[in-house]
Amino acid sequence: MKNPILNEIKNLVADRDMTLTKLADIMGQRLGRKYSLASLSQKIRNGTIPYKEVRLIAEILNYKIVFYDLEEKKFKIS
C-alpha cells in the first residue's frame, strides 16, 4: 500500500535539494538527540510521527503548515 504522507515529504525534501538522511540529521541536531533516517521513515510509515516533528520538518524545509476551514472558507496558519 502506498504511503501518501511519505511521498509528500519526499517530494518536499527533493524540492529543497535535500535528502531524507540530511533532514533526519538536522532534526537530530535541533531535537538534541540522535535521529536516524530509519526512525524518521518508520514514524512516517506507521503514522506515529508527532505533530511537533512534522512542524519541525516544515520549519527546516522553510514551509508553513496551513489549515483550511471548509465552513468559513479561509486559511488558518499554524
Number of helices: 4
Total beta strand runs: 2
Give the terminus-to-terminus CA distance: 30 Å
Shape by Cα distribution = globular
Q: Low-confidence spans: pLDDT under 50, at least 5 residues?
A: none
Radius of gyration: 13 Å
Portion of residues in beta strands equals: 5-15%
Percent helix, as a range, is 55-70%
Q: N-to-C SSE series? A: HHHHEE
Structural class, from secondary structure content? Answer: mainly alpha
Q: Count structural domains.
A: 1
Order of adjacent strands in the largest pleated sheet: 1-2
How is the biggest beta sheet arranged? 2 strands, antiparallel
- How confident is the prediction overall: mean pLDDT? 90
Walk me through the structure.
Helix 2 packs across helix 4 (51-60). The protein contains four helices and two strands, in the order H-H-H-H-E-E. With 78 residues, the chain is mostly helical. A two-stranded antiparallel sheet has the order 1-2. The model has no long low-confidence stretch (mean pLDDT 90). It has one domain (4-77).
SSE map:
Blueprint: H1 4-15, H2 20-31, H3 37-46, H4 51-60, E1 66-69, E2 74-77
Helix pairs in contact: 2-4
Q: How would you concisely characterize the structure shown here?
A:
With about 80 residues, the chain is mainly α.
Structural features:
78 residues, mainly alpha, two-stranded antiparallel ribbon, 4 helices
